[in-house]
Amino acid sequence: MNLTETKSGQEEKNLEKEWEPKIIAFLCNWCSYAGADLAGVSRIQYPPSIRVVRVPCSGRINPFFIIKSLVDGWDGVVVSGCHPGDCHYISGNLVARRRFAILKDLLTFFGIESDRVHFMWASAAAGERFANLIKKITKIIKELGPNKKFQKNW
Amino acid sequence: MKRTSDIEIENQTIEKSIKEMAKNLFRNKEVDIILGYSAGTIPMASPPIIIRNESDVEKLVWNNFCSINLAKNLLELMPKSFDDKKNNLKIGIVAKGCVGRALIHLAIENQIELKNIKILGIDCNGIINRKKIEKEIGDREIIEVSLSNENILIKGKGFEQTFSYDEYLNELCKKCKVKSPPTSPELNGICSGKCEEVLSIEDDFKDISDYELKSYEERWEHIKNLLNNCIRCYACREACPMCYCHLCFVDQNKPLWFGKTTELSEIILFHLIRAMHLAGRCVACGACTSVCPMGIDLNLITRKLEQIVKERFNFTSGLNIVDLPPMVTQKMSDKEDFMIDEK
Question: Which structural domain range is residue B137 located in?
Answer without folding.
Answer: 130-168
